[in-house]
Amino acid sequence: MQAYSDKTRQSDPYALPDVEVWHTDDYDDYDEYDALEEGWYYWPCFPGCLPDGDPVGPFASETEAKAMAESDALDYCEDEADGPAPEDIVISDIPRGGWSVDEVEGKHVGTYIELADVEVAIKAKMEADRFWPNVWIVSDHGNVSLYHMD
Length: 150
Hints:
This protein is α+β, with helices and mostly antiparallel strands. It is about 25% helix and about 25% strand. The protein folds into two domains: about 1-80, no CATH class; about 90-145, no CATH class. A five-stranded mixed β-sheet has the order 7-6-5-8-9, with helices on one face. The longest helix is centred in the middle third of the chain and has 19 residues, at about 60-80.
C-alpha cells in the first residue's frame, strides 16, 4: 500500500505517496526478504520506483507501520531543518553522467564522474578551508537530503 509520510501532502495534486507499507507475505517470492521476521514493514518508495532504503519493521499492524513511517519522516525533517544553508555544499546529478559539486551561495567546486571522487574532493575542500558544512544531495526526483560521507 502506498502512503504519504506527511499527511498534509495528500491533498496536493502534484505530490506522490512516498512510503510503501507492506506485509512479509507480500514478498514471499523474493529470497532477499526471507530473513525478515513476519510482520508489517515500510520503506521509502515512490510509485513505480525501487525502494529508497531498507525495510523498517516488523510492526504488529499496518496502522502501526504507517504511524511509524510518519513519525520517522517528521523526525528526519526536523533534523534537516529547512534544507541547505548558504554555506553548505550540494551534490547534483548531471543528466549525461557524473556529478556537479557546488556551494549553495558560492563557487563551483568541481565536476566528477564517480561519486567516490566527489567525496574525496569535498573532504579535501573541507580540510583546506578548515570548515565542515553540511553536504546535501539532489535526487533524480529533485528532492534534497543530507548526504552522509564515510
